[in-house]
Design a protein that fits this description.
- By secondary structure, the chain is of the alpha+beta class.
- It has one domain: DD-peptidase/beta-lactamase superfamily (Beta-lactamase, 3-Layer(aba) Sandwich), CATH 3.40.710.
- It has eleven helices and twelve strands.
- The strands form four sheets. It has a six-stranded antiparallel sheet, with helices on both faces. It has a two-stranded antiparallel ribbon with strand order 3-8. Strands 4-5 form a two-stranded antiparallel sheet.
- A hairpin with a 2-residue loop joins β1 and β2.
Length: 374
């Protein structure tokens, strides 16, 4: 059992909120914030319990987001919550979220697809494409995929995210060169946005096609993804991001997505993301051999080649997380249980707590609501 540590932290906040609610909501809230345990397991989602939890999160005005759960390749649960609290326009189940670095999974699939076609090799050196960059003669495609290149993160300059306005490729490459490398390739692991920026440029170069066309050709069309787009093909049906300031939700100025193509630019729905990760794990996009190389080595690697590993209380998931300046996404698949979970929030006051508690509910563990008074 997992100890509910949030309950004591928020007890002074729960009490005045409980006094504000009618008797029906009081009963729901008191059950949810107590040491509640269910027999719920991933293959038997109890939608009423998750709905009640997320409705109370919305009632407390602490988050807005969407959740989709797949079992056996089919959606068994979906829910959107909190949007009545936001100054948002009309939206529906097809409205996309910025998925941030979950985009890197898409880029990795494209790299391996081009490897299968003989247009790339994992052993190719960065110098073949960018000879002037640090350690280019030693850094391989494989190093860049698995964050062992030693390259930095170009999205941050002088301690701040500077790519909120459109930047030239030359300016970005100059910064990558200026930031240098932290270690020799293969000697350590450090998450690198710069590596994936370069990978996206390389796949465009060897295929002679722009990134968005590659995503459409090799991922969206084979999987019939209807609501997944790269930066240059966006519709207007994308959620705006918000943060809570001066006691209200206000817009956040986001990163210009053309600066992060292949790194964090894709917009998608939670349904499409689950179709995507299910397709990746069931060889609908790549050969079994290519896919196996993407996976991190269990008990040895946290990062594979575009796929991360998550241990959620003994339940092993693979996938990727993604954060923009205002939207937060997680995509995970558990092959043992054949369960995929996609979650995104574009308005969040208590980072990560809501999703963590969703997992606790799914696996029948103790949880609480990190409420703050509206």
């Amino acid at each position: 059992m997992i100890t509910v540590t949030l309950l004591d932290k928020y007890v002074l906040i729960y009490e005045p909120l409980i006094l504000m609610l009618d008797m029906k909501l009081k009963c729901i809230l008191l059950v949810l914030v107590g040491t509640f345990t269910t027999n719920l397991v991933a293959q038997n989602i109890d939608s009423d319990i998750i709905n009640a939890y997320l409705d109370n999160v919305a009632q407390a005005n602490i988050e807005a987001g969407s959740l989709s759960v797949f079992k056996g390749g089919k959606e068994v649960y979906s829910y959107r919550f909190g949007y009545d609290n936001l100054p948002e326009g009309v939206s529906d189940n097809n409205t996309q979220y910025q998925i941030g670095s979950v985009t890197k999974m898409f880029t990795s699939v494209l790299v391996f697809k081009l490897v299968e076609q003989g247009k790339l090799k994992l052993t190719d050196k960065l110098a073949k494409y960018y000879p002037d960059l640090p350690n280019a003669k030693d850094i391989t495609i494989k190093n860049m995929l698995e964050h062992t290149s030693g390259l930095g993160s170009y999205v941050v300059k002088n301690g701040e995210v500077w790519v909120t306005e459109k930047q030239t490729d030359e300016a970005i490459l100059d910064l990558i060169k200026e930031q240098g490398v932290k270690f020799a390739p293969g000697k350590d692991v450090a998450y690198s946005n710069s590596a994936y920026y370069l990978l996206s440029k390389i796949v465009e170069s060897v295929s002679h096609k722009p990134y968005h066309e590659l995503v459409d050709t090799y991922i969206c069309k084979p999987l019939e993804l209807k609501n997944t787009y790269s930066a240059n093909t966006y519709t207007t049906n994308v959620f705006r991001p918000f943060h809570f300031k001066d006691n209200k939700w206000t817009d956040i100025k986001e990163i210009d997505t053309e600066n992060i193509i292949g790194v964090g630019d894709i917009a998608s729905t939670m349904y499409d993301l689950n179709v995507f990760i299910y397709g990746v794990f069931h060889d609908k996009l790549l050969s079994k051999q290519s896919f196996s190389q993407m996976l991190p080595i269990k008990n040895k690697e946290k990062w594979g080649r575009g796929i991360n590993i998550f241990d959620e209380g003994g339940h092993i998931y693979y996938g990727h997380g993604g954060d923009t300046l205002g939207t937060h996404t997680i995509l995970m698949y558990n092959p043992d249980e054949d369960v995929a979970i996609a979650y995104s929030s574009n308005a969040q006051r208590v980072p990560q707590e809501v999703f963590k508690n969703i997992l606790y509910i799914i696996y029948g563990k103790e949880y609480s609501i990190p409420l703050v008074v509206k």
